[in-house]
């Protein structure tokens, strides 16, 4: 088959925050770079981030990156790698200042500096009191950041392939990555992108759950491609439930609401977080607040006719603060909850929001996997950054505002290290293996020829129901074991999905079927990894093992698609320049 | 629950000699509140129906379409508010790729033509460039654009001259950078718009203001650019 080949120094898959930040680095370096995105870049899900990006600028109160690092390590429940966490927190002020110089429209303080608001888990003096560390553009920080990065890429003349969906990773006989296959959605044609280095910045996969704050496009395409190419996924049992999704609709209400002074109330009108987290109260980290909310509902103190949600009250902030700092939230509450928060509280429930796990990388953005006794041997030519990557800076629970920071810090780091790799180690392209597009063509042919199969929407709904019911906020052994069996059965069904639309031009039925291939890999990884971890840590709350077990379980999990088996590797306990932060009990 | 009737523009270039309108009828469930919820359900019934969608909360700008004659985002439109049959067409004035999916190349070309980035060649300070809250407020109502193209594709001037008239979205962006105290290229930006078409084809019809799903006002921004043109001419 004559599949056309296009050749670039670097190929970036994904046009969200991480992809665009890396693209800027590579385009400005003069290397021939292609950015593939299945949606126009400003439609990427970074656009929906609301509350802020963290950096210890100290514009409002004294702050230091070491405190930010401490909070992130503690937030991660000591599963985060301390070298990567140090790198991110140390680089944060520089990264945010750079965004400001790029033109990002941050809100301002009276003295003209960037406005900062409090956010969950961010403190002064290693946990003493909340600190204003989240740099914000109203409650549209992700939108402001993504558009600014896109605009900067327009300036840099970055070459975009818009509405091109990457299908599979191409590895050669040495296991090195030499490119990807991709589908041009407008024509339905398949191409090979031959590259010296490939970066995945493909975002999250919240769509494995039925209720998620995530966009429809968040189908974890990079993770699916990695698993199919024989690479492991790290820490997939850890999914963040954001405390405040609009009940019923799933749409996100930023933690910035609580940062500005909003509070959570149960059916008795009690500010229940004071009971669970006497110090940080409503601004405790997300895993902690979500569990507290679930307990309120389980113990019969939920609100509404079915007693199944709690209330987020912010009317006491007054119309001025709401209209100035939280205008987008007001709009969302009116449109999706039918309440105007200036007058009435918003019904909220914990909703799947963020994937802490992902493709294993180090702080340089290099993808790593176990090989010959080395748990972290570099996969040559392969990089990942942003939500699809696991560096791991978020460990078992991510702090709010650390995701936008992750995108720009590791997007840049990956870009820089790709430049070094391409210039230093790759004078020429490694040859493509024979039949490089074979697996992708086979997937397309399967869909073209499938008869008598199930609808994609049906199988996807079955997957979502399974993950939602078996890998929620609270988990137990019996439930997860059932989940492993059920998801294996759904994965079997996914092999025989059928689409009625067999056309080529912008066939979104086909795209959804290809996305389901990716989602299924992630759903399986999630349940197998969750079933494997016999402790409670961060977002993984195991009823049968209610405590953290550092002796046996302070380790990262690695899921391999082949045989659906688990391996484990040590957490990085050695920061780059500062002292190790040893584990402590996690109270707030 | 109620049944709802649709009439939807269909065109598949591989199969259809020309576009046609297809009728659908669907039962509304309790969770079918927004138009996007319902057309997702239609797609589950008929997977050939093609449209773009992503965030489903009005921030990504993917699902702009012409709804009962007016441009808007499907994900923030209440289906109960629409008269029946609900008539869906692609955004007007741009080439149709398939069904409700239009080719937005010309729209983005105009956006790119205004140099949509802060131009500032002075040496970068160590810290942020300072901006007072009042100066920052000048960007409100400008930076929130989601590039959905509802405005430009509702503008008759853009329909007639999509290659020459920048259109409301692009001009809103142009003013966003002119209004930014950190930008040093105001005069270059005005030069870039000083021609009979690029700016001056705006005849203040104000369809753009009427349809903007983010409640922005491109006409006002265009007026401010015109004022600056006049001021510098004197």
- The shape of chain A, in one word, is globular
Query: Uncertain segments of chain A of ≥5 residues (pLDDT<50)?
Result: none
The amount of helix of chain A comes to: 25-40%
Anisotropy-based shape of chain B: elongated
Number of strands of chain A: 24
Q: Count helical runs of chain A.
A: 16
Question: Going across the major beta sheet of chain B, what is the strand order?
Answer: 2-1-5-3-4
Mean pLDDT across residues of chain B = 96
Query: How do the SSEs of chain B run, as a string of H and E?
Result: EEHEEEEEHHHHHHH
How many DSSP-defined strands of chain B? 7
Distance between the termini of chain A: 60 Å
Average pLDDT of chain A, rounded to a whole number, is: 97
Number of helices of chain B: 8
Name the quaternary structure: heterodimer
- The first-level CATH class of one domain in chain A is given as Alpha Beta
CATH fold field value of one domain in chain A = FAD/NAD(P)-binding domain
* Radius of gyration computed on alpha carbons of chain A: 23 Å
Name the beta content range of chain B. 5-15%
Largest sheet of chain B: 5 strands, mixed
Structure commentary:
The complex is a heterodimer of chains A (588) and B (234). Chain A is α/β, with parallel strands linked by helices and 588 residues long. Among the domains of chain A are: 5-53 and 86-106 and 140-239 and 355-424, FAD/NAD(P)-binding domain, CATH 3.50.50.60; 240-354, Flavocytochrome C3, Chain A, domain 1 (Alpha-Beta Complex). Chain A contains 16 helices and 24 strands. Chain A has helices at residues 17-29, 65-75, 82-102, 141-155, 221-228, 256-259, 273-276, 286-298, 318-325, 327-337, 402-425, 438-449, 456-470, 477-494, 508-532, 550-553, and strands at 5-13, 33-37, 53-54, 116-124, 129-135, 159-162, 164-171, 177-184, 189-200, 233-234, 239-246, 263-265, 310-313, 346-355, 359-360, 366-371, 374-384, 389-390, 454-455, 474-475, 497-498, 541-542, 555-560, 565-570. In chain A, α3 crosses α11, α13 (456-470) packs parallel to α15 (508-532) and α14 (477-494) packs antiparallel against α15. The mean pLDDT of chain A is 97. Chain B has 234 residues and is α+β, with helices and mostly antiparallel strands. In chain B, strands 2-1-5-3-4 form a five-stranded mixed sheet, with helices on one face. Chain B has a two-stranded antiparallel sheet with strand order 6-7. In chain B, α2 runs parallel beside α5 and α5 (167-178) crosses α8. The mean pLDDT of chain B is 96. Chains A and B meet through α3, α4, α10 and α15 of A and α3 of B.
């Amino acid at each position: 088959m004559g599949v056309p080949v296009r050749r670039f120094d670097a190929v970036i898959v994904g046009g969200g925050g991480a992809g665009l930040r890396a693209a800027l680095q590579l385009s400005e370096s003069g290397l021939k770079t292609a950015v593939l995105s299945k949606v126009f870049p400003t439609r990427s899900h970074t656009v929906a981030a609301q509350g802020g990006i963290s950096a210890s600028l100290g514009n409002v109160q004294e702050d230091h990156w070491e405190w930010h690092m401490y909070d992130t390590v503690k937030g991660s429940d000591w599963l985060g790698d301390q070298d990567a966490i140090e790198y991110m927190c140390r680089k944060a002020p520089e990264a945010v200042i750079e965004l400001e110089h790029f033109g990002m429209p941050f809100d301002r303080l009276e003295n003209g500096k960037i406005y900062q608001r409090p956010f969950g888990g961010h403190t002064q003096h290693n946990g003493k009191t909340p600190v204003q560390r989240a740099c914000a553009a109203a409650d549209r920080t992700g939108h402001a950041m993504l558009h600014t990065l896109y605009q900067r890429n327009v300036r840099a003349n970055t070459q975009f392939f818009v509405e091109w969906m990457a299908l599979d990773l191409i590895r050669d006989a040495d296991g090195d990555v030499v490119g990807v296959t991709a589908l041009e959605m407008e024509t339905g044609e398949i191409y090979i992108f031959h590259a010296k280095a490939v970066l995945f910045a493909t975002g999250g996969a919240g769509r494995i759950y039925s209720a998620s704050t995530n966009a429809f496009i968040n189908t974890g395409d990079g993770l699916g491609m990695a698993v199919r190419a024989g690479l492991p996924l790290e820490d997939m049992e850890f999914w963040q439930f954001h405390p405040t999704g609009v009940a019923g609709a799933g749409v996100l209400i930023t933690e910035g609401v609580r940062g500005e002074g909003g509070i959570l109330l149960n059916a008795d009108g009690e500010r229940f977080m004071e009971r669970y987290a006497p110090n940080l109260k409503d601004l405790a980290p997300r895993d902690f607040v979500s569990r507290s909310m679930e307990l309120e509902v389980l113990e019969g103190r939920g609100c509404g006719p079915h007693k199944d949600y709690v209330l987020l009250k912010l009317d006491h902030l007054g119309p001025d603060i709401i209209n100035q700092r939280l205008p987008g939230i007001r709009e969302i509450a009116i449109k999706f909850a039918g309440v105007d928060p200036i007058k009435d509280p918003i019904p909220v429930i914990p909703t799947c929001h963020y994937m802490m796990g992902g493709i294993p990388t180090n702080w340089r953005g290099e993808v790593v996997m176990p090989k010959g006794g080395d748990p972290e041997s570099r996969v040559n030519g392969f990089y990942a950054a942003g939500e699809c990557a696991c560096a791991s800076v978020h460990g078992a629970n991510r702090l709010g505002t650390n995701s936008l920071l992750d995108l720009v810090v590791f997007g840049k780091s990956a870009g820089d290290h790709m430049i070094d790799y391409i210039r230093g180690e790759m004078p020429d392209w490694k040859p493509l293996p024979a039949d490089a597009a074979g697996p992708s063509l086979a997937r397309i042919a399967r869909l073209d020829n499938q008869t008598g199969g199930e609808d994609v929407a049906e199988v996807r709904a079955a997957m979502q129901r399974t993950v939602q019911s078996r890998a929620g906020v609270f988990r137990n052994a019996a439930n997860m074991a059932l989940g492993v069996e059920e998801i294996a059965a759904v994965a079997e069904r996914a092999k025989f999905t059928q689409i009625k639309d067999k056309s080529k031009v912008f066939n979104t039925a086909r795209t959804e079927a290809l996305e389901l291939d990716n989602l299924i890999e992630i759903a399986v990884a999630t349940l197998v990894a969750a079933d494997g971890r016999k402790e409670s840590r961060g977002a993984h709350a195991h009823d049968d093992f209610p405590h953290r077990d550092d002796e046996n379980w302070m380790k990262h999990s690695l899921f391999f698609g082949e045989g659906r088996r688990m391996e484990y590797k040590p957490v990085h306990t050695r920061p780059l320049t500062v002292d190790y932060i040893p584990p402590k009990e996690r109270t707030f | 629950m109620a049944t709802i009737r649709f009439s939807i523009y269909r065109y598949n270039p591989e199969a259809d000699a020309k576009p046609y309108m297809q009728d659908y009828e669907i039962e509304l469930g309790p969770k079918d509140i927004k138009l996007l919820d319902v057309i997702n359900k239609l797609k589950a019934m008929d997977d050939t129906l093609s449209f773009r969608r992503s965030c489903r909360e009005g921030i990504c700008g993917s699902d702009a379409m012409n709804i009962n004659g007016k441009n808007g985002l499907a994900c923030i439109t209440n289906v109960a508010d629409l008269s029946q049959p609900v008539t869906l067409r692609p955004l007007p004035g741009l080439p149709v790729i398939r069904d409700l999916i239009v080719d937005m190349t010309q729209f983005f070309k105009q956006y790119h033509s205004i140099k949509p980035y802060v131009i500032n060649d002075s040496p970068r300070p160590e810290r942020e460039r300072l901006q007072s809250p009042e100066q920052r407020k000048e960007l409100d109502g400008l930076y929130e654009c989601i590039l959905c193209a509802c405005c430009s594709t509702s503008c008759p001037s853009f329909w007639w001259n999509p290659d020459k008239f920048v259109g409301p979205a692009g001009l809103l962006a142009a003013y966003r950078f002119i209004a930014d105290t950190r930008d040093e290229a105001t005069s270059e930006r005005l030069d870039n718009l000083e021609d009979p078409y690029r700016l001056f084809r705006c005849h203040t019809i104000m369809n753009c203001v009427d349809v903007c799903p983010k409640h922005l006002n491109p006409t006002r921004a265009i007026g401010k650019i015109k004022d600056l043109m006049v001021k510098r001419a004197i």
